[in-house]
Design brief:
By secondary structure, the chain is an alpha+beta fold. The chain folds into five domains: 186 residues, Zincin-like, CATH 3.30.2010.30; 132 residues, no CATH class; 117 residues, Sandwich (Jelly Rolls), CATH 2.60.120; 34 residues; 87 residues, PGBD-like superfamily/PGBD (Muramoyl-pentapeptide Carboxypeptidase, domain 1), CATH 1.10.101.10. It is 40% helix and 18% strand. Helix 3 runs parallel beside helix 4 and helix 6 crosses helix 7.
């Protein structure tokens, strides 16, 4: 063999050595190591910490930060040791086998040549559960702060709580995702879908079945607080986690965990990977149609209207968003124009109530994007139907309904934008649309004119008598007759004065200021709302309202008159 050939073989051997994982000896219990950590998560902003290997299981090394552990008392240390023992067993018997069989393998034996996953518990900021650093999967020549091992980080403060299993599962899915997407397929998953898969893991493993104190309960609260958050725009805020979790619950509820799993094993990312997974599983609907169904479901959550319009998960049976309220006064003719801004793949719900007569809604959206606008018509709260607003190329459309107050008690418009399907890597642009809503009751208007003419004649006959009594009336308290007209913000008359007298008599819990001015201002409006909510069963619930409006309409007047024995 020539010397040139020998040199080539040596070169090839060296290349293979550097391109292959470096074999190292397995870690041993009580071993102390120094780890790089993310200073933005670390409680003290540290970049490195010292930790001891407290537990070795079949599939994982469990390290605990020395500074944190050494500050615990004897009883606290015993609690942590017991929790660690249970967690190690849970990781080997449940978390690792189920998640790898569902989503695929992590890099194994990986960059460190060791089949074990390193799980490091260290002090983190209060709102942090844990994190994964993909830089650990690269040698230090590429990533200077790499720990050069398959590794996840957890907040040590949660180690003694049951929810720690959910956090470990979440971060482990990120480790799997790195191998399945970046290493094997050379693509980087969009953050929203990466987090959606990871945050569904506790449900997949059964940890959310006990709802109280679960990861799912936490996500429901976050979603309900910000239901209009965009699914695909990731700003690493609590509302983002709530959104991706609640949507993934619906997706898996109806189409199976295979959609999340198969999309992970695709060379595509984000929405495109989900559409590929839907086709693979012979599902006719695409992501857009499923998202639209979901926006309807989180408003209605009623299987009787269609199995696609509810959650099957028993812990989510009562989940419903509260729509923005658009109230139309019950006058002969009313018109309201409103402008809104929304982002791609966010649900937006607008409930229209009130008004009597012929109803017309005009929708005008920016034509740079494509809107999807289903709507729900309800007669009271039980009898509802679903339809879709037809939009032209300019994203304009309208709805016309006869006798709205009688045939329908509410219309809920559900708008979203579904144009963009990839490239979600930062803040998304907001797009505008406007709603113009009008109700006109011609018959009521004509009847009212006749009544007014008759009243004018009657009033003219009373004017002389009233003028003679004005001086006496001015010095006396107003004598309140039956409340027979609607009262609302901005009005100023004797009926408002009577309303204020009535509210004052209800006590300081209802009208703490007790002002009687005859002007319907913000203090009076707030008092009316408190009164309505005190008698919600008689005033609000029949109108499918959960909170007061401050508008003194028929149901509120009836209750006041009843209490006055009028």
């Amino acid at each position: 063999m020539s010397s040139k050939l020998n040199k080539k073989l040596i070169l090839i051997s060296v290349l293979i050595f550097f391109l292959s994982p470096v074999f190292v000896l397995a870690d041993a219990e009580d071993q102390v190591k120094t780890f790089f950590v993310n200073s933005s998560f670390d409680l003290g902003g540290k970049e490195q910490i010292s930790a001891t290997l407290e537990k070795v299981s079949q599939d994982a090394y469990f390290y605990i930060e020395n500074e944190w552990y050494q500050n615990l008392n004897k009883n606290e240390k015993e609690t942590i040791e017991q929790s660690l023992k249970i967690l190690a067993q849970e990781f080997d018997q449940t978390i690792y086998p189920i998640l790898t069989s569902t989503h695929g393998q992590e890099w194994k034996p990986g960059i460190d040549g060791d089949k074990h996953i390193t799980i490091l518990f260290h002090q983190m900021k209060e709102d942090a559960g844990g994190y994964f650093n993909s830089g650990d999967e690269y040698p230090t020549v590429q990533s200077p702060t790499s720990n050069q091992r398959e590794m996840i980080y957890l907040n040590a403060a949660h180690l003694k709580y049951e929810v720690i299993k959910s956090y470990v599962a979440h971060e482990f899915v990120h480790l799997i995702t790195f191998n399945q997407k970046e290493r094997l397929r050379g693509v980087s998953e969009e953050i929203w879908l990466n987090e959606a898969r990871a945050d569904f893991a506790p449900t997949l493993l059964g940890y959310d079945e006990e709802y109280q104190g679960s990861n799912l309960q936490q996500r429901v609260r976050q979603f309900v607080a910000s239901p209009n958050d965009s699914l695909t725009e990731w700003q690493n805020e609590k509302k983002d986690y709530g959104m991706v979790n609640i949507f993934s619950q619906y997706l898996v509820d109806h189409y199976g965990i295979e959609i999340l799993a198969d999309s992970l094993k695709s060379s595509k990312i984000g929405i495109l990977s989900i559409n590929e997974a839907l086709k693979k599983n012979n599902i006719e609907k695409d992501f857009s149609q499923i998202f639209t169904d979901w926006t309807i479901s989180v408003f209605l959550n009623d299987c009787s209207l269609g199995e696609e319009y509810c959650y099957k998960n028993q812990n989510l049976k009562n989940l419903k968003v509260t729509p923005s309220l658009i109230f139309l006064p019950s006058t002969q003719k009313t018109s309201v124009s409103l402008d809104y801004f929304i982002k791609q793949w966010s649900g937006n719900w607008y409930r229209i109530i009130g008004g009597e007569g012929d109803f017309k809604l005009e929708f005008d959206g920016e034509n740079k994007v494509q809107f999807e606008v289903p709507y729900v018509l309800c007669q009271n709260a039980q009898d509802c139907s679903i339809d879709f607003l037809d939009l032209n190329e300019k994203q304009d459309g309208e709805i016309f309904l006869e006798d709205f107050g009688s045939n329908w008690t509410s219309l809920t418009l559900i708008s979203s934008i579904q144009s963009k399907t990839f490239g979600f890597d930062g803040r998304e642009t907001s797009y505008s649309f406007s709603l113009s809503v009008s109700v006109e009751n011609q018959e009521k208007e004509e009847k009212l004119i006749e009544e007014l003419m008759a009243r004018i004649t009657e009033l003219q006959a009373q004017i002389a008598e009233l003028k003679a009594k004005i001086a006496g009336i001015l010095g006396e308290q107003v004598s309140c007759q039956k409340f027979n007209q609607n009262l609302y913000f901005g009005m100023e008359n004797e009926q408002v004065r009577c309303l204020q007298e009535f509210l004052k008599e209800q006590g300081k819990e209802i009208y703490p200021q007790g002002l009687v001015t005859g002007y319907f201002g913000p203090l009076t409006q707030a008092a009316v709302i408190r009164f309505q909510e005190r008698y919600a069963e008689e005033i609000l619930y029949p109108l499918s309202l959960n909170s007061g409006t401050g508008f003194v309409g028929p149901s509120t007047r009836d209750k006041i008159n009843q209490m006055l024995n009028l």
